Amino acid sequence: MMNNKGILIVLSGPAGTGKGTVCKEFLKRNADTSFSISATTRSPRPGEEDGREYFFISKDQFFKMKDDEGFLEYAEFCGNYYGTPVAAVMKKLDAGQNVILEIEVKGAMQIKEKVPEAVLVFIAPPSKEILRKRIEGRGTEPQDIIDRRMEIAENELALIHNYDYIIVNDQVEEAVKRFEIIKNAEKLKTIRNNEFILEVCK
Amino acid sequence: MMNNKGILIVLSGPAGTGKGTVCKEFLKRNADTSFSISATTRSPRPGEEDGREYFFISKDQFFKMKDDEGFLEYAEFCGNYYGTPVAAVMKKLDAGQNVILEIEVKGAMQIKEKVPEAVLVFIAPPSKEILRKRIEGRGTEPQDIIDRRMEIAENELALIHNYDYIIVNDQVEEAVKRFEIIKNAEKLKTIRNNEFILEVCK
User: Fold this and answer.
1) Which residues lie below 8 Å from residue A202, measured CB to CB, with a gap of 6+?
2) Is residue B48 part of a domain?
3) Fewest CB atoms less than 10 Å from the CB: which of A78, A152, B56, B129?
4) Between β-strands B54-56 and A119-124, what pairing exists: parallel, antiparallel or unpaired?
């Protein structure tokens, strides 16, 4: 059964849920899926490379792209702007490639509105206690930073019901399998198989 | 992650798509899922047993149950009535067991209306030509019967867009796997994990 278009997958979840690891492992094993590189106005951190983690652009460039409808979604976070360049994503989807956007909740809601067939996946911690330990466990940060991170995580968790699926990341291996199940099930959705329907009904 | 309730799965598809075989194989391998036995006013065929293939009841009994809201859905087919007894299904769902209803399109639409979280799965032939061969291949029937069956199958296929998922039954083994992927993905749906959400957000 052929699928015309790739699936647009939005992946969100609080810091400390291991979202990045799950995403990386998933991409290694699923050649039919690629990662959308966001544009950001924040400075590169040590080890980050332009065009790998992010496209690092100026605020002027960012707002010009925004005004030209160049972003599928964008958001401001801690004074920096982040956006998903629309052209690259659409090109991949049209070629049948699935695309993952790792973005936060506000951006996810923009995607849901613009691309109703997008699939919103939330990576959740097994429990709030475990999330707290993971956030504290990063170690060297002062308590007020940890409290602030926990507050942000709780605000993100409060929006979980806006997502289509929840993956609890208790073990990375299991979480990746669940992610694959979601992708594979979505490929079987009626709305994604119009060509087959036309063929079998003609 | 605990799921409170089982998933109500509606399985439909034209005769000749191997729907029954896929369903039987699926049930063998998935102890978390059981089959809803319909009630019917038609006579048992040789080899059929009351309470195994169907509950065989009289028309009087059928209409009494219908008036008492005893059916989740019901339909008339070739002069006989078929219905899904609601009590047994609800008891299983409440106990966390998934339930498969193997019913035709009219019944499926009634379920979608009454139980919006039900999952509608259509078993489709790989192509219309293959469906025709399968229907003819049953062998001993006269041409007008075959034509009539093909017409019914085409009318069913025309309603495929009302279903959530399509499983193309090219190979039984693959079709069963796809069915399992759908069930497992549905368990990860946000709407089916309210208890977890309450727990992790509290």
Assistant:
1) B128
2) no
3) A78
4) unpaired
Does a structural domain hold residue A2? no
CATH assignment of the domain containing B129: 3.40.50.300
Full domain range(s) for residue A66: 8-201
CB contact under 8 A, A188 and B197: no
* A185/B190 touch (CB, cutoff 8 Å), yes or no: no
Contact of A41 with A80, CB cutoff 8 Å: yes
Q: What is the pLDDT along chain A (202 residues), one digit of tens a residue?
A: 455 799 999 999 998 899 999 999 999 999 999 999 999 999 999 999 999 999 999 999 999 999 999 999 999 988 999 999 999 999 999 999 999 999 988 899 999 999 999 999 999 999 999 999 988 885 778 889 889 989 999 999 999 999 999 999 999 999 999 999 999 999 999 999 999 999 888 8
What is the CB neighbour count within 10 angstroms for residue B118?
20
Strand partners, B19: none
Burial of A40 (0-12, 13-18, 19+ CB in 10 A): buried
Bridge partners for A122 per DSSP: A12, A166
Euclidean distance between CA atoms A126 and A167, whole angstroms: 9
Domains contained in chain A, number = 1
In this structure, is residue A87 part of a structural domain? yes
Of B167, B186, B188, Cβ closest to residue A166: B188
Q: Is residue A18 within 8 Å of A178, Cβ to Cβ?
A: no
Structural domain includes residue B65: no
Among B124, B163, B186, the residue with its CB nearest the CB of A200 is B124
